[in-house]
């Protein structure tokens, strides 16, 4: 409102009073209302002295505002109740909100304005830039470290605590130098921790030492040897024939006469002699490699120089000797621990180690006997010394039959370890079951097969030992045609049952399944293509045909006598060795009557099974298939009924 004689006149344009007439003294912008007034951001209410408001309600304001004002008493000539954001006030001259000193208006809000040489570190907080500090006298100013006032007095006259002196300008640079030095030493340690770095450092230091010493040595002058001096005489030209040059040795006063020369200059006037750079480098090499080479020096400056070079050379060669010793020790340690590479091909590879591995190694040695021996490589996670000690304690030297057994320590799950034992060039690969738990063992076997499939040009035949028959289809799915599975747990259980019912049958299995005696062999023979299987008995007089492995990989034991051998079929025979049989032309054999073997009556059996197996149900089903009705099976184990 316009004040006239300290009383409110009429309201200005755009403002309205609470009641009609100018005596009310309340003018508010916006819509005229009765009672409370709604103020928006940037608007204000002017009051006359002595008047009290009935309340101002703050509403519809987006920016932070002061709390609602319930009642205000005007004590000065005029007063303005503004509705401005924090850190701001209403200007009566401009009728607008203005920020207080030190703040600036941004987006209808007053934001702290940092002084020079500072920046905003957090909302509403300033921080001096690097190299500047907050002056103790001028608390709102960031000044240079060297210009800051360390001591100030408060209003009560008490002396404030001394501020810590700012660090000198070179302090930050010194820290950076320390950081750079630490970084350099770290890089150097990392480099020389490898064999390549050690070799490079030794070679580089040796070359630098020779070149640097050669350059320094070439700057050293040399003249007449110590202990000798030259005497000269200047004569006329006509008397030149009678003049001699004499070199006198101070030690033994022995004279040596040489050809006379005219007007020989004084030794002090002769120019100094220097050694060439190539000769200097060679001399430094002699000082480094052979300290005895110093004996030929006569000048003391060169003797002192050669002494220091020889000392450095001795230290250098001691370092080289230590490096060579460490390299030899590391190599022997690698050989001892089984970490070196195996460069072989057409060898037998065993992946993993178990209680059946020694027996398998014995059988492989027997199989290689006909070939004059071979190579068996073992890759396991056990230590090489432990495996070799186990082989040495369970195998005699003659049981190797010329076969070399190589042991390497590593994981069959790691491709680099498989490459280390030349798995991609092996003739056969056997994956052993190494865990007691069937699921863990089969899972490990599956991972090994995946690692083998990742090798380039894998040409060997892979046989995997499986503990659970339920996992066999998964192994076939992952391994494909190159992997054959052997469920050892089920096969051993069947052999135990059959051997228990027929005493002596275990010897037959040992002879047939092992390489000690006759064993199974399969091979394709083009000479018998089209021949009925029943006639093969006369074609192989040194072997016994028992079945056929078809082109599709199917094994057929005792096929029909009229089955004709096709191209690619492999004949399965029992023979002494793989080189003791071959097909021969058919021979005429007179027929003889087949002897009649009387059949035995089946009897009821009682079988006692001691212990428990997880596949006991499969064993009982197998027993039920060939036992007479009424037979009994008794189970004796530690489990409860």
TrEMBL record:
Compartment(s) where it occurs, according to its Swiss-Prot or TrEMBL record: Endomembrane system
Signal peptide bounds: none
One annotated GO biological process: potassium ion transport
This protein's UniProt keywords: Ion transport, Membrane, Transmembrane, Transmembrane helix, Transport
Keyword Transmembrane helix: yes
Similarity section: Belongs to the castor/pollux (TC 1.A.1.23) family.
Protein name, per record: RCK N-terminal domain-containing protein
Organism from which the protein derives: Aphanomyces astaci
Lineage: Eukaryota, Sar, Stramenopiles, Oomycota, Saprolegniomycetes
